[in-house]
Design goal:
Blueprint (H helix, E strand, L loop, with lengths): L1 E2 L17 E3 L40 E4 L5 E4 L17 E3 L10 E4 L4 E3 L12 E4 L5 E5 L11 E4 L3 E13 L2 E9 L2 E6 L3 E4 L19 E6 L15 E4 L5 E3 L4 E7 L21 E6 L4 E11 L6 E2 L4 E5 L10 E7 L24 E3 L5
Length: 371
């Protein structure tokens, strides 16, 4: 008889799937990001809508539609936890049959006759040095301090993220599956449900060698507002840049990445298409890219979005056209690098361009973003 490592608990529970996934929020500001309480909260304008964030209720929730302040509609809590019940907290996976080599692993036969191949005492299958996250577009996977949804997450992982796998353990049953991967999360031990992560031999993407001006090769522009600008580049937007460019100017990726969020609902004829005041805070079209170093870059006030969530793009690849949508006082591109936080609008972080360093308000720059 073989027992897979389990973590004890005094409770027996079935959890809503939404406790594992966090829904992305969005909004927009004139030349920066929305301030807290002005659309940043739980508005749902990101493409790829799915399950909402939840505290992990014990009962299933029905599908319903909630309209946020931006007027976008989201679908929340459509999937329940697994059918399996647990005793004394977590399910212990009991297998029968011989195991070939305690240290090297082997094939074990479960009670239903199926067989699995393990790689050793850590419970991981052979060839499972890492796991890749697989969640619906626009959602992120919670990383928990224990293999359950009982405690608050210690962080999140985006779809396609690759992290080192340390162990396969049993924990709270999710969609009938008790397995959780122990992972290395930024140097800290964390757990993710095996429902949303699978073994991979792939390596995580390399961090960008650098970030380039988000305009096509040779394009010139003036920085109309730099870091810590007096108009709106403060707080979460302190490290943003505004590029003074004409309507319809091609906007390109600053570095290789994956499209994490988009919003493209503001079109010709809409009240906020040609800019507006604070009432337009939630209506700027944008693209957010995730890069190999775990940071994101955002491109806002677009006239048109030309990529979709999940697309992989190279540095210099066109992702949209410039405009003045949302809370904007004139045509420009608002570009910013962010710490990834599971939603489109996050804290800005310093950004230095390969060809221009850290330009200041009034500086003229020329893009060398040449694919």
């Amino acid at each position: 008889m073989r027992y897979r490592r389990s973590v004890p608990s005094s409770t027996t529970r079935r959890h809503n799937l939404s406790a594992l996934l966090v829904f992305a929020a969005s909004a927009s500001l004139a030349c920066g990001d929305p301030v807290e309480g002005e659309g940043e909260g739980d508005s749902a304008s990101a493409s790829g809508l799915g399950l909402s964030a939840g505290s992990g209720s014990d009962s299933a929730s029905d599908s319903d539609s909630d309209s946020d302040s931006a007027g976008a509609t989201t679908t929340t809590g459509t999937t329940t936890g697994g059918d399996a019940s647990t005793t004394s907290g977590w399910t212990t996976a009991t297998t029968t049959g011989a195991s070939t080599g305690a240290d090297t692993g082997g094939q074990t036969t479960t009670d239903d006759g199926s067989s699995t191949t393990t790689g050793g005492d850590d419970g991981l299958p052979r060839d499972c040095p890492r796991v890749v996250v697989d969640v619906p577009d626009g959602e992120v996977l919670n990383v928990r301090p224990l293999p359950s949804t009982e405690k608050a997450p210690i962080g999140t992982l985006d779809d396609g993220a690759i992290v080192d796998a340390l162990e396969l353990v049993d924990g709270e049953v999710i969609q009938g599956n008790p397995e959780w991967f122990a992972i290395d999360y930024e140097g800290e031990l964390g757990y993710v449900s095996a429902v949303f992560a699978t073994c991979t031999l792939d390596e995580p993407p390399e961090p960008p060698a650098g970030f380039y001006i988000p305009l096509t090769c040779g394009t010139k522009a003036t920085i109309t507002q730099g870091n810590n600008g007096q108009l709106s580049h403060n707080g979460t937007s302190a490290y943003a840049f505004d590029f003074g460019v004409g309507i319809g100017t091609p906007i390109v990726a600053m570095a290789d990445g994956k499209v994490l969020y988009t919003y493209d609902k503001t079109g010709p004829g809409d009240p906020c298409y040609n800019g507006g005041g604070q009432e337009c805070v939630n209506y700027a079209n944008y693209v957010v890219l995730l890069h190999g170093d775990g940071t994101t870059t955002a491109y806002r006030h677009l006239n048109k979005v030309t990529v979709s969530v999940g697309d992989t793009v190279k540095s210099g690849k066109k992702i949209g056209l410039s405009g003045t949508t949302g809370w904007s006082t004139g045509r420009h591109l608002h570009a910013v690098r962010q710490k990834e936080c599971g939603k489109p609008y996050c804290q800005s972080i310093p950004l230095e361009f390969v060809e221009a360093g850290v330009p200041k308000t009034g500086d003229k720059v020329t893009s060398e973003n040449c694919p």
